[in-house]
Amino acid sequence: MIAGVHHIAISTPDLNRLAAFYIDVLGFEKVDWTGGWKRGNALIDEIVGLKDSSCEQVMLRAGNLFVEIFQYSSPPPRSGDPNRPVCDHGYTHFALDVTDIQAEYERMTAAGMRFHRPPVIDEEQGVAGTYGRDPDGNVIEIQEVIRPEHAFHISKAVF
Q: Are 118 and 94 spatial neighbours (Cβ–Cβ below 8 Å)?
């Protein structure tokens, strides 16, 4: 039985920069746990499906959502496209529930977060939302549930 989502993992070329964004801009807190591993850990290599892997990592938390950030030093990672369309296969986004979406949009924009557009209100579905990108181009949706009775029907929303 699946109990829920525990964490989302992101690989980055700059662990400190990305962690600072999630802490300073999005309000995550650093969990009292950091980690990583050195090359030569056969068990970890088997788990992650890489040969001679090594990385540093940090775990962050906002409410019941954890974000684990990895900075691999081995094998050499390929750069991601910071403007990768959300229709491409793979991770598309995760959503953060907010209150006062317009204020959050303005605050995050002032902090340097790039948004695709200002928030859209979908009166029929009872939500407002928009997509933005962290410094590596990973997509983060901010959404405000305006009508809680429709909170589980957001897949039809217009944004």
A: no
Q: What is the mean pLDDT of each run of 10 residues along the chain (159 residues)?
A: 76 94 96 86 88 94 91 92 83 86 95 93 83 91 82 44
Within 8 A by CB and 6+ apart from 126, the residues are 145, 146, 147, 148, 149, 150, 151, 153
DSSP 82: T
Residue 88: half-sphere exposure toward Cβ, Cα within 13 Å: 9
Q: Quote the CA–CA distance of 146 and 104 in Å, as a whole number.
A: 15
pLDDT digits (tens, 9 = 90+) for 51-91: 999 999 999 999 988 999 999 999 999 888 888 888 887 77
47 φ, ψ to 5°? Answer: -65, -50
Structure-token match 């746990």, residue found? 33
Domains of the chain: 7-74 (3.10.180.10), 94-150 (3.10.180.10)
Contact, 145 vs 126, CB < 8 A? yes
Kindly report the number of other CB atoms within 10 A of residue 61's CB atom: 15
Residue 57, both tokens:
């990592």
Of 12, 13, 74, which is closest to residue 40 (Cα–Cα)? 74
